[in-house]
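Re: beginner question about structure tokens

> Can someone show what the tokenized structure looks like for a real chain? I only ever see the sequence side.

Sure, here's an example I had lying around. Input first:
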Amino acid sequence: MKTRLLLLALLCSSFIFSQNIKSPKEYLGYKLGERFTRHHKVVDYFKYVSKQLSNVTLEKYGETNEHRPLYVSYISSQENIDNIDKIRLANLTQVGIKSAGVAINNKAIVWLSYNVHGNEASSSEASMQTLYELVTSKKSYLENTIVIIDPCINPDGRDRYVNWFNQVSSSPYNPNQEAKEHQEPWPGGRANHYLFDLNRDWAWATQVESQQRLKIYNKWMPHIHVDFHEQFINNPYYFAPAAEPFHEVISDWQRDFQVQIGKNHAKYFDKNNWLYFTKESFDLLYPSYGDTYPTFMGAIGMTYEQAGHGMAGLGINTDHGYELTLIDRVKHHKTTGLSTVEIASKNAEKLNSEFKKFFDNKSLKYKSYVLKNDNQDKTDRLKRLLDKHEINYEYTNKGKVKGYNYTSLKDGSLNVSSNDLVIHSSQPKGKMVKALFEPKAKLADSLTYDITAWSLPYAHGFNAIASKTKVSSSKNTANNKVYNNTSPNSYAYLSKWNSLEDATFLAQLLKENIRVRFSEKPFSVEGKSYDRGSLIILRHDNVKHKKFDKKLIAITNKLERKIIAVSTGFVSSGVDFGSYSVNPINKQKVAVLSGKGTSSLAFGEIWHFFETQLEYPLTVLDTDNFGRADLNNYDVLIIPNGYYGSVLNKNTLEKIKKWTRSGGTVIAMSNALRAFADKKEFTLKTKKDEKKDSLKSNLTPYADIERKSTENFITGAIFKSKVDKTHPLAFGYSDTYFSLKLGSNSYKFLKDVGNVAYFTKDVANASGFAGKKALKNIPESLLFGEERIGNGSIIYMVDNPLFRSFWDNGKLFFVNAIFFRNSHNITKNNQ
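And the corresponding structure tokens:
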């Protein structure tokens, strides 16, 4: 009896205390929506609540590039919090990820993610109010529900936006759309530090925020995940159910429960006469979103989109005659967040039972995906990605496997060894395996929100087979640690060239002032054969480097690069090391354009690549000052995807051409090619449909215009190209390359030599959607090419090999353009 009274007293005191917890308004000193809250103050409020209430805990799971902390908060009943790890393990056990002894879970797990796009800033404000109401007026929801809140996925982007807005906004705010506070400057607050869109990085995990989040996400595997966003100011509010196309791994239950959730939201929006829409625009196909990735991991994954984003500020006049305020935006996001938790609480047992069913993968068409290990660096890189998602892999047993051949694009076979990788779909995350590895994603509708092809064997450059039968395999725990010793009496050291890791090795050598050469022709020496592009590190070139051998070996062992010491430069076949075909590699000084006209995302991909992968210095030039820049300070100029009408005008193009003629290298990417195409000074010509009749009347019904327009689109499709592997731009590649084409722009073959990679007359569309009109210009068109101008060249990259940093197989083309063209004169700026 005393125990029961004590327990009752504790419950009562907890209830009273939770009612006295400060609201966000009381804690911050202003009403939510009256101003934007900087990230550290959002975190402070979550810390305050977790210190005051024992049924709220806070966990730091990481840190951004700009050293802002990343947190998640766990909110539930006291009993659930006391048993939180048991609940977590039971959830993972019921789907086969863990074996904790308890395979039954009856608690719903709801994860709410806010502010993945930094300038969609209302959601972090709403996260605080959602937390407050969950621990006060909505405590009943928590009896059978664990709520996980990430108040801000992208703190760097959020503070970039909030700091700018606080600097320029009027007091009181000005709702006029033309006011400065509604005109966010380049690059905007949407992306993270490296200007990556974190909402498209879930599957590729190239960014530190994504990598750290996946670790904790995989610890929980929630039943519902919501990603809170904002959209254009005239689109009121979007919530589930999503639009077609749905990826085929999505279950009927997942689709149906989205409808139930949407109806629950609608109940509250109808009551308040708030505008909303569903089933439009936002589909569930591309696997790297904050709604699709969780969905393919068994959750009910959803995007909620409030009108606003970086244009709305504290309040703005919409085109529809009403003012949209931050106060309203916060209120709407708070409402859908609480509504989500409410319906989860009412369906906790059903959520668990259906979640468990999702992980039954017996019906999947392909049982195994086999990837030929022709390049250990590529295999290791893919394994690291799979490890991030906690997807299991093994190695094939020696023999032959049959199935769909990714290279020939038809059924075939592949001889395999014990070094070749195999990923089975008969594992808990088998449906995610299917989504990431299948040759072609089934496309129910051509109107999609993003790219329609991404298959990892193509993205990573593997010869691969998708087998309908499970391939015999075993685990391989061999340690392939590379270790080199100095060889002071050697004539040269030799190293292969066929991976991004080799490029990082070269960059490190150049930074340490170790001179390197590469061979334009294959050769054999002392019983070993070497391909084009092989690195040759001559003692002759490094006689002045006092710690040459010691420093070289230290770098090779740190980066696990195998080098071969040879005692002579007299080769068995091919060219000797003193040949003019063995070219020095200059310590290239590289510049890249950024600022107005430049795609911030495309610039970010280059910036991120240089700093985190190539690890090589890069000078960032602003387009506002480009006309005054002295290009003679640089060897390479990179022009990212963008629209440069006013930047690359007649004067600046002449400046670039003059610099190129003297030995510079321009790398123009994607839409930047438009600045050079069809101008008499350059040979690049646009490929157009000559049969197109611009005067022909368009009798397409109004309702069909959007769908009809897809005939002109290529929405991220994979095409097979032919490669001239004898050209330095293609060193490290075979004669076939699969490219991710992001648009319909096409260019004719270059007149003279320099067509390095191109699409043939019978070009094959390996995967993804391409409209029938857009397809007409792909055959016999350029992919990567080089136009020689005097002593230099312009490298044209029609497709972007650095797109979202996940198309790993294209990155060596980019590196080759930097180091293997116009780089032979090492006196330009070296040492």
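Each token stands for a local structural state, so reading them left to right follows the chain. The chain has a mean pLDDT of 93.
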